[in-house]
Amino acid sequence: MNTYERDVMCVSVAPIVSLRLGNSIDPNGIKEGDDVYFDCHVKANPPSTKLTWYHNGLTLNLNSSARTMKSDNNLVLQRVTRNVAGRYACRATNSEGESFSNELSLRIKYAPGCRTERVMVIGASRGESMDVPCEVDADPPAKGFRWKFNNSGETIEIGPERYISNGTASVLRYTPVADLDYGTLSCWAMNGVGHQSVPCLFQMVAAGKPQSVHNCTVRNNTDGAVDVQCEPGYDGGLQQVFVLEVFAENLDSQVDGEALYRNMTDRTSPRFSLGKVALGVLYTARMYAANAKGKSTAVTLPRFSFPSSENQMGKLRENSKKYDKRLSLSISPMKNLNTPLT
Fold it and tell me: In this protein, which residues make up the domain named Ig-like (predicted)?
């Protein structure tokens, strides 16, 4: 009896890797709250010793608190949200090298939600028509919207003829004509996943131009810097900003006239610091408030300067007299700037 010996050749190769979704998962039907898993299929000799997962090109951190876990060659995503959508891949490593899988794109569908979560304040005068935009994020796009109006006395459903809509936004044309027309507008959207759970809110307020600032003061600090401070007036029902314009007139110049020295804006309060100003220059400061409806009447503050010579002091007195005649004011030139204007 002949005995044949067979030599078995073992070939070592780097891993061959492929990625696929779990067998029971429809890639076009995944929505927020579902569980998803990927299968990283690896052929390798010798067997792979390390498996790494990637999301949008970055190494994926696996932890149970983020509901992202690994089981053998599977990646498990529990109760998914829209934030985990994107591109996934895996990489297997053995002693012969490493290999990446194909990329799979994960789409997570979700019900509509407001693009911005804060309440939008919209100011309108009586009889003024305003376009109120309700913008949402949704996948698939929204297929319908509804609007309601609420004031302290009643809640009213707004008919669809009052607004136009597409897959991402609905725009309501709204015109308050009486006090009861000011209140809260609410907007909801719906798509193939479900209805929006929390509405987008818009607070309609009676609005106009802001009132002027008052109780203004120009003063110099101990380090020589100049501060200009006022108290704000009524904002007109809308968020307001404050603008300070400072004009300069060189006392040594033979030409009369002012040039814009500084233009400053503050979104929180009418308080400005000019820093240290140049010597021998006569300054005029004007401040006003502005909102979406326009700007207030500007308030002109007392002129100020730091004369560096007696010559310039005389020029300062002369220019101040001309200025006082133009404005019918009686403001003395100052070395000490702690001068209020009410």
Answer: 15-105, 112-199
